[in-house]
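Hey, quick one: can you model this chain's 3D structure?
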Amino acid sequence: MKKYLIVFLISMVPLIELRGAIPYAVGFGLPVVPSYLVAVLGNMLPVPFIFLFARRLLEWGQDKPVIGGFFTWCLLKGEKGGRKLEAKAGRGLYWALLLFVGIPLPGTGAWTGTLAASLLDMDFKKSVLYVMAGVVLAGVIMLTASFGVFGAISFLK
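Sure thing. Here's the predicted structure for all 157 residues.
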């Protein structure tokens, strides 16, 4: 149970998310389906809060002495990512959001995608659904990659 809690918590951490949680679970030999579900749930738990509150919190804190620089950086990163996504996607903005979240590259994921959706004033329900689909896709990709890496390591033993 402790290892599942670790998987859950790792998947909630920004920038790491389930991209770190799934390899952790596979590396420690946890059963695949429960680990995958725990990682997806952990990655999705912050999404509604990010969408509803992150923008307001970041705007409030951007002129504060200690945190202002970081909050401004987060706003600029979310805005830049959102505008880039919007420019490339056009009418397929929600599908682009799904792919942005779903392709596990540095700087993409549920946290950044949700912040971008919030900054672009996208529909809450649709955004959450497409972010969830992206998280599911990222999980499948990470499972496949993890089994490939750990399978190769076990083959070398």
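One thing worth noting: The chain has one domain: 2-156.
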